[in-house]
UniProtKB/TrEMBL annotation:
Gene Ontology MF terms: hydrolase activity
Pfam families: DLH
Gene3D superfamilies the record matches: alpha/beta hydrolase (3.40.50.1820)
Keyword field: Hydrolase
Protein name: Dienelactone hydrolase family protein
PANTHER family noted in UniProt: ALPHA_BETA-HYDROLASES SUPERFAMILY PROTEIN, CARBOXYMETHYLENEBUTENOLIDASE-RELATED
InterPro entries: AB_hydrolase_fold, Dienelactn_hydro, Dienelactone_hydrolase-like
Domain Dienelactone hydrolase span(s) in chain numbering: 63-290
Organism: Phenylobacterium glaciei
Length: 302
């Protein structure tokens, strides 16, 4: 099995992918690189939901985005779901379905479509190449396009929108709340907070990181982090907390699960921590509700 202990993936020395895991990833739709041989991922029913892949008009081309929403009339609060380095694979789609069954419109844009599908690749060097093509400016532009798309949908309540992201997407969630006034709340799952060393993965000059823009935060963010994350130093978390306090940003908090590893919410990985994942999920929903991103009473059938 694989233990992903770093915010942008594992090193080659961490990899020991069984044939069973590889086959399960390919046929189950999970990321080939990261699926644990012992995983029993959560599968959420789509009964009572509308699930579809839509095309979002980005600045240079249309990009696909997975949408899950209640199959009911009316407008529903929105949660933008930002993927890990493995793209919009089954884990991300299932997360969208979980949110939709609670009464949200959940949308997961494919930020990597221009360069490939990292979920189907077992070579992490190639995955990094694909992910690195999604520049800071491109991701920001794609988010802007996603917001524009949502504002044109009759089922989306554009006044009550939140964002969440995992791993690579955790940093994007922080940045989105720092750059866009449209989001009322954010939830960042173990996303990098500070710049990597020059020359490291995503360490190119000019890319901005959450600590740098803490003073610009428009919406409160709950950060959900792991105490045993080898790629996100606890010192970075303290620096982020201090930056938020210095900027007098109220409503944000960072929770650390001391015995968990990076990726503790990802139920298809060996690093999955069911107890921490459930607690963090509940905290995320409470954070959204406290800041106006709360669905009306809705119960999906099935």
């Amino acid at each position: 099995m694989i233990t992903l202990t770093r915010p942008e993936g594992t090193l080659a020395s961490d990899l020991n992918l069984s044939r069973r895991a590889l086959a399960g990833a390919v046929f189950g739709g999970y990321a080939v690189y990261a699926l644990s041989a012992a995983a029993e991922p959560i599968t959420t029913s789509a009964d009572g939901l509308v699930t579809e892949t839509v095309q979002v008009a980005a600045s240079d081309r249309a990009i696909p985005a997975f949408v899950a929403r209640p199959a009911a009339k009316g407008r529903f609060p929105v949660v933008v779901v930002v993927c890990e380095v493995f793209g919009v694979h089954e884990y991300i789609r299932d997360t969208c379905r979980r949110l939709a069954r609670l009464g949200y419109v959940a949308i997961a844009p494919d930020f990597f479509v221009r360069a490939g599908d990292p979920s189907k690749i077992s070579d992490f060097t190639e995955i990094r190449r694909i992910v690195a093509t999604a520049s800071d400016s491109q991701v920001t532009s794609d988010l802007e396009a996603t917001l524009r798309f949502l504002k044109g949908q009759k089922y989306a309540d554009k006044g009550h929108m939140g964002i969440t992201g995992f791993c690579w997407g955790g940093a994007v969630a922080w940045l989105a709340c720092e750059r866009f006034k449209d989001f009322k709340a954010g939830a960042a799952w173990y996303g990098r907070l500070s710049a990597p060393n020059p020359g490291d993965f995503l360490g190119e000059p000019g890319r901005q990181w959450p600590i740098q823009l803490a003073r610009d935060l428009h919406a409160p963010v709950i950060g959900l982090y792991a105490g045993k994350d080898a790629g996100i130093p606890l010192a970075d978390i303290e620096t982020m907390r201090a930056a938020l306090q210095a900027a007098k940003k109220k409503g944000s908090e960072i929770i650390v699960y001391p015995d968990s590893q990076h990726g503790f919410h990802a139920d298809y990985r060996a690093s999955y921590d069911a107890k921490a994942a459930a607690d963090a999920w509940a905290r995320m929903l409470a954070h959204f509700a406290a800041h106006g991103v709360k669905p009306k009473a809705f119960k999906a059938e099935g």
